[in-house]
Amino acid sequence: MTSFIPCVKWVKQGVSLHQNTIKLSQQELKELTETKPKEKELSKSDKKDYGLENYDEEEMDMSGAMSIGGLAVYNNNDFNDSDTDSDKLDEILKPDDNLVLVGNVKKTECSLEIYVYNGNDKDFYIHHDIILKHPPLCLEWFGSIGNFCALGSMSAMIDVWDLDLIGCLEPTFRLGRKKKKNPEKNYGHTDAILDISWNEHLPHILASGSVDETTLLWDLETNEPHTRMENFGDHVQTLKWHPFESQTLAVGSSDFYVYDCRTYDTYKNWNVKGKVERVHWDPSNGFLCYIGTDRGQLICYDCRADKPLWKYKGHENEVTGIYVWEKFIVSSSTDETLKVWDRENKHLIKIREFSGALHSLDGCTDNPSLVAVGGSGTSKFQLFDINDFSLKTC
């Protein structure tokens, strides 16, 4: 398995100011270290065979050997070390810190990495990470019940992680259910999850698209799917909630769809040559939506019209990310390039070449000129500044 970054996501400032580290209390540690296993009574013949009759006469100090107490690390407020103090300071987040969520697939393990970026202090470092059982395919932040990350993978279930907990081994909860003994009680997706989108206007709603050719709308208050949309005829590769309208959802599959989710079967669709890899709503004009295809095309749709406003060949390979800010459109591709376009005049401003395929990008809400880029090779995770076209690495 090659090493690459399949998904990245910015988290806005001020949502994660209360981190907690998973650790045992003094009482729990005491109970754990003082617990002794039940000893099996040995017969006289056993004692003779093992030479245990004179065992008590031997002088040997085994206190603490092979016990958890000998491995436990206690907090000591009097201990002062510059490196330890520096690490503690890094764990404390400031109100103007942004988090960047990064799904990292390595050769031997997979992880969710949480980075910190501060535009004022120019701090950029990894805060903590979470080891994952399955390679991440997509992720989404949501803040309806805290500071959480919903993560999709090949497992057909959505793992939800509490980002304020450091050192957790299992997700806080999962969306979906698979029971071998009672398959009639299963619900959710039946194949890999390719994209997730949170509805900020209806914060208890989460949308997900899957290889099983369905889109599900999850109710985060019950952790069960509320609405099921199907008959796409192909994988649901990408989806995105409208920035202003709570009921409108853009979906990309073999065609491009815009759903009115007040009913499951009200939608408008446009035929697309190839497959839709990415969708992105215009942040200032609610009628416009941009899509990127597996053939490298960038297409802009006005949802009131039957034909696209414009389209042109943006990349040689599939488009893996789209971001729109002011007069700029930023796109990434597996052709190892990131391109900046003039949104009004439809011409190319800048090409930034990388040393590996690019798989994802996301723009920062608080620093909108800053784009997180995930790729492979030596250009795995970097920050790209649209203003001066510079790159920042951790």
From TrEMBL:
Superkingdom to which the source organism belongs: Eukaryota
GO biological process, one term: rRNA processing
PROSITE patterns xrefs: WD_REPEATS_1, WD_REPEATS_2, WD_REPEATS_REGION
Keyword Metal-binding tagged: no
Keywords carried by this UniProt record: Phosphoprotein, Repeat, WD repeat
GO cellular component: nucleus
Entry-linked Gene3D superfamilies: YVTN repeat-like/Quinoprotein amine dehydrogenase
WD-type repeats, residues: 186-228, 312-351
Coiled-coil features, chain-numbered ranges: none
Claim: Phosphoprotein is one of the keywords in the record: yes
PANTHER family: PERIODIC TRYPTOPHAN PROTEIN 1, PERIODIC TRYPTOPHAN PROTEIN 1 HOMOLOG
Name of the protein: Periodic tryptophan protein 1
Annotated organism of origin: Macrosiphum euphorbiae
